Amino acid sequence: MIDLKTSLLAIDVGRGTQDILVYEPGRSIENSIKLVLPSPTVVTAEKVRQATRAGLPVFLDGHLMGGGANTGAIREHLSRDLPVYATPEAAATLHDDPERVRALGVEIRATPPGDAVIVRTTDYMKQEIRQALSLFGVDYPQNVAVAVQDHGYSPHRSNRIHRFELMQERLDAGGWDILSLAADPPLADMTRMQAVRHQAPGALVTDTGPVALIGALCDPEVRRMAKTGVTLVNAGNGHTLCFTLKGREIHGLFEHHTGALEPEKLQRYIRRLADGTLTSEEVFDDGGHGAAISKPLTTDAVVVTGPNRLRLLPEAYQAAPFGDMMLSGCFGLAYLWKVFRKA
Fold first, then answer.
1. Where in the chain does DSSP place strands (E)?
2. pLDDT tens digit string along 12-58?
3. Is residue 244 a part of any domain in this protein?
4. d(CA 20, CA 329)
5. Domain containing 119: what range?
6. pTM of the predicted model, to two decimals?
């Protein structure tokens, strides 16, 4: 299902880890170079915490990146009455509205004060990955594909609503085909994706949730189930995305925060998604993003991938494309590279 004519570096950037595949033509995927490393947000957070322990100011310099551990560390730093400065682009990591960033206590400025610890903000850790590969004599591939989760530019309204509206718009425009959720190039509104593309011109940059489920379809058993109808779940560290799918057509989907889900609640959502009664308001009011349904799809086949799969759906089929669940997103990126770039 994945047979590229060119080498490819696929990076799936999550909340806890960044999962990396180096695809080389002629080498089986099972024997390809694979890395599961701390996510950029985790790396950035630790650098901020080091400055906090040293009692030093922090200057955020770089690109817009995803939040999570880093924003938590920055808030903790500020709570200790320690200064935080940021360039305008790096400040967007904290919020799309600069006034909201300033309200947190962050000073937005172009250059750092002399005593500040400079902390680089980026979702694309090219320098570090290149160095890691070079230690083992591995060349850095010219072709790059990256997945990040992007809520879209939404300075004055809920980014949960905005993200889900964008997903539904793409589905409507693409006939509810699963590939319609992985536009190449990404929408201009997807500022996190655009920040990665700025650093990696020519890269395929798309969303983490759909690519993990596209990657799960590389599992032959999952492809078989999808022919007649299947519920696909990506239980990530930050978000859980669920599709009902037949062939490549999505019948319904919802997205929630993984930390807010327990097995019983997730099963209830899955049942109501399948019978077409789950509402977007219900998911949003529960702290999630939303739901959208084109038509019901009754099926007993449930497939799960992602690092929280056993906690949330231990009885479901555990998708392991090419024998490696943690690389589902990377396999999805490689598949999309083949489809979109005709490689």
1. 8-13, 17-23, 33-38, 58-62, 84-86, 106-108, 117-121, 144-148, 204-207, 230-235, 239-246, 249-257, 290-293, 302-305, 317-318
2. 999 999 999 999 999 999 999 999 999 999 999 999 999 999 999 99
3. no
4. 9
5. 1-219+320-343
6. 0.95
